[in-house]
Amino acid sequence: MNEKLWSVCVIEPNKYEAQIVQDMLWNAGVLNIRVFTDAALAMDLA
Asked: Please, which contacts does 20-23 make with residues 24 or more away whose CB atoms are closer than 8 Å?
């Protein structure tokens, strides 16, 4: 698997936990990460 080609959407209401997940994905090699703290907004923009 080539993680650089993944597109990941993280929906986490807690901004600190969202940052942890984003950092973990980035360190794993995922380059395209979108983070949302509001599920409704994420659904509108997805």
From this structure: none
